[in-house]
Specification:
The structure holds 2 protein chains of 2 kinds. Chain A is mostly helical. Helices cover 68% and strands 1% of the residues of chain A. By secondary structure, chain B is of the alpha/beta class. Chain B has 18 helices and 17 strands. The chains are: A mainly alpha, B alpha/beta.
């Protein structure tokens, strides 16, 4: 304890600098953890958080009482795996391409353009997707029709939607993720490439032997951070684009949309908290497991 | 020294002034209503506030408008977060029963007796009796009639072009839809709503509103799903899985046929706003509306006119007295939150809005002579483009001061007078009953999670009822049965009293 105080006293100016960040974490990340009590209570506003009746695991019954929890958990993990598994490598490749653009002005322009979709709300993206895929005058069906091909009932074909959502997710987030990779890329010393060039390495060989190995740590950290949220569906995305289209639910219904739909009429905070707790616990378990796995293979890039 | 005295005196005057100002400062009353702000709202609000002040109610009204699509979630979050809200719109079809069960609303009997005599006076006793929750007044019922008007609007120009007589029956409507599809293959004539938020407007749900034969209708447990339904006037809740009502099943099969024949848009489940996206732009030909008349939306009519089109109403509701069973439950309520710090004042505001015809119609239609004008004794004419001043259907609607739109045809006026008269209806023996969902909240949540996969698609013809029902039943039957049993238990207890 004395050592702790000594440390604080020694580096007090640094700790004062970190104080706003620490306070932010305490207020918005640690204090809300008490909210998980809600999942075990029959919460009544009049009784408050600590006065409401304790009901054990009763609030979990609605979720685990039918087989739907298996489907929605699978969909959540499957879709997030697609987004991470395809989206992250895509962003990395995009970042490498942008990094290789020699014309400075064009490089900045390209960077801005691919970053732009990140600022478009899911509602607007949903309208764009509808304009592309609808059956009456959708762009893709019009092209198919023009080419003499049969039109596709996109909004009635659940099997197609994991792919559609992956494409849309990449459209929105690839630019954002590539900026992070780009920042890491600029940190790679130019001398390494220069000596490789002197040794006669092609551009592709340079990427393969220098860029990718040096990008491994940041890629793994991004992957680990993504895995931490693998049990959380992107509600804004799925609900904005798929909405309440029941026909598409077998492949697009994630934990968040399921609980929203199920609890829309009931409006019970405790039951929704139970689902959030399930997601959080599963998220923690997954991240601990993958962190352990990565620690074995690459001890330097583990999260903790 | 002299300066100090002067300074002290100035400070004292300033403090007294501020104190006086604070004493006279208007109290903020926050009101949450659905939909967006009406175009004339900003001009209207100061007039309302002046009127309130003139009558000694010193308030500043802070209206929060929540779009329909976010209404359910956002209002729940506002209530759960104990936001500074005084009056809030709610309804049994939204989440009123659940919010009451969780203690978010205040019981109003005493407050209305003390400060809301006009609110009480402007609604008939039968309306108060039928709109209690657990025997208590938990919200002010809002409605002009004992049942919501409901009908269809069709393209009059297309009907005439196709050589069809005015449509009088469901069969006429179907013939017209097929004729439109044949003449204009790119159109999807039925312009109904497949979105869960507006599931009341789904095809089969809407069609069953006109069943005055066996009176198949929604139950108190699921106000927009016929998977549990009442039939006749016996207080029995039926389960569609166990007792497939022939009328509902025929309507489901018919919807499926319409979908396959191209009368319903293939994307119906993903269309956010069918009225705007299709009917308004001339791509639809039949719209379901909560009116007996042509649409009141001037913009919509103008848009159609610009396309060379015109609309006309089709009313299929019976005019025969005693054929329609109604429980007199109003669709909309305005509730007082438990967290309101100005309960008495909030009720006084509502009371002022219901005090006389002038105040009432100021809220509903806007400034007289500018936004609207009175025609005769009981009609109003819209002078602008705004349908309402403020969303009166969610705040003030009462049958005493409501005016009928002068643009409505004679048939619509006659129908509105009929449904404003309690004797037109056969009183539902469950009138006054409210369902307590708490004992089966798990089952309701489970069932609704499953229902969303099937029900909207079934009632709009997207899925085949013969093959889908079995799958739907295998997943949802146990939870639906438990809700049915609980509903029946509560109904029986109510009917015994």
């Amino acid at each position: 304890m004395r050592a702790f105080y000594r440390e604080i006293s020694k580096n007090r100016s640094l700790y004062i600098l970190a104080l706003p960040g620490i306070l932010f974490l305490v207020v918005f990340a640690y204090l809300p953890l008490f909210g998980h009590i809600l999942a075990f209570e029959d919460f009544k506003m009049s009784a408050g958080l600590f006065g409401s009746k304790f009901v054990g695991f009763k609030n979990f019954e609605f979720f685990f009482g039918s087989n739907d929890w298996i489907t929605v958990t699978f969909n959540t993990v499957f879709l997030n795996t697609l987004f991470l598994g395809i989206g992250l490598p895509f962003s990395l490749v995009l970042a490498i391409f942008i990094n290789d653009i020699r014309l400075r002005g064009f490089k900045r322009l390209a960077q801005s353009f691919i970053f732009l979709p990140y600022f478009i709300s899911w509602q607007v993206i949903a309208l764009m997707v509808y304009a592309l895929l609808n059956s009456s005058n959708g762009f893709i069906n019009s092209v198919l029709l023009g080419a003499g091909l049969p039109v596709v009932n996109w909004y009635g074909s659940p099997g197609l939607w994991p792919s559609i959502l992956t494409v849309v997710n990449i459209f929105k987030y690839a630019g954002y993720n590539s900026i992070i990779f780009l920042a890491a890329l600029t940190g790679i010393s130019e001398e390494l490439y220069e000596s490789a060039r002197i040794d006669g390495a092609s551009r592709f060989q340079q990427v393969l032997k220098i860029t990718l190995p040096l990008m491994r740590p940041i890629f793994l950290i991004m992957l680990l951070l993504g895995i931490g949220r693998i049990f959380f569906g992107d509600f804004g995305m799925i609900y904005g684009i798929v909405g309440d289209n029941g026909v598409l639910l077998p492949t697009t219904d994630v934990i968040d949309t399921y609980s929203y739909r199920a609890l829309r009429q009931v409006g019970n905070l405790s039951m929704s908290s139970a689902v959030v707790l399930y997601q959080s616990v599963m998220g923690v378990v997954t991240i601990v497991f993958f962190n352990w796995l990565i620690k074995k293979a690459e001890p330097d890039v583990r999260l903790f | 020294m002299r300066f100090n005295r002067f300074f002290a005196a100035a400070l004292m005057i300033a403090c007294l002034g501020m104190g006086a100002f604070a004493a006279n400062a208007p109290t903020k009353i926050t009101i949450v209503l659905p939909d967006n702000k009406m175009p004339i709202f900003d001009n209207l609000l100061p007039v309302i506030e002046q009127g309130l002040q003139k009558d000694g109610i010193n308030v500043k009204l802070d209206f929060i408008f929540v779009p329909w699509s976010d209404l359910s979630t956002k209002t729940q979050v506002m209530l759960a977060g104990q936001d500074d809200v005084d009056l809030i719109f709610d309804a049994p079809w939204l989440h009123m029963n659940q919010m009451i069960a969780q203690g978010y609303y205040t019981e109003l009997s005493d407050l209305l007796k003390a400060n809301g005599q006009n609110v009480l006076r402007t609604r008939p006793q039968s309306m108060w009796d039928a709109n209690k929750f657990g025997g208590k007044i938990m919200g002010v019922p809002l409605g002009l009639f004992f049942q919501q008007p409901h009908g269809y609007v069709v393209r009059a120009d297309l009907r005439q072009k196709l050589g069809l007589k005015p449509l009088q029956s469901w069969d006429d409507l179907v013939k017209y839809a097929y004729a439109v599809k044949k003449a204009y293959p790119k159109m999807y004539p039925f312009d109904f709503d497949g979105n869960v938020s507006n599931i009341q407007y789904g095809m089969v749900n809407w069609k069953m509103l006109d069943d005055s034969d066996t009176n198949v209708r929604f139950t108190h447990a699921f106000p927009a799903s016929l998977m549990l339904y009442y039939r006749n006037n016996d207080g029995i809740a039926h389960n569609l899985f166990d007792e497939p009502d022939p009328k509902i099943m025929t309507a489901l099969k018919e919807a499926r046929k319409f979908y396959q024949d191209g009368l319903i848009n293939p994307d119906i489940l993903s269309i956010k706003n069918p009225t705007d996206d299709f009917y308004r732009t001339g791509k639809g030909a039949i719209l379901d509306v909560r009116l007996f008349s042509n649409t009141r939306s001037v913009n919509l009519l103008d848009d159609l006119k610009a396309l060379g089109g015109s609309s006309e109403p089709v009313v299929l509701a019976t005019k025969t007295k005693g054929k329609v069973i109604a429980n007199f439950v109003m669709d909309n309520f305005i509730c007082l939150t438990s967290v309101s710090k100005n309960k008495e004042l909030a009720i006084k505001v509502l009371d002022w809005m219901n005090k006389n015809s002038d105040n009432y119609n100021l809220i509903e239609h806007g400034i007289p002579g500018k936004d609207w004008e009175r025609v005769g004794t009981d009609k109003w004419k819209n002078l602008g483009t705004s349908e309402f001043g403020i969303q009166a259907y969610a705040l003030t609607w009462n049958p005493t001061y409501a005016l009928l739109p002068e643009s409505d045809d004679d048939n619509a006026i006659a129908m509105q007078r009929l449904i404003a008269d309690a004797s037109y209806f056969q009183k539902d023996i469950t009138a006054g009953f409210s369902f307590d969902a708490e004992p089966v909240k798990n089952e309701i949540a489970q069932y609704q999670g499953i229902e969303a996969k099937y029900y909207p698609a079934l009632i709009n013809g997207v899925l085949d009822p013969t093959t889908t029902m079995a799958k739907f039943k295998s997943e949802a039957a146990p939870s639906l049965k438990k809700v049915q049993v609980e509903l029946q238990k509560q109904l029986n207890a109510f009917l015994k009293k």
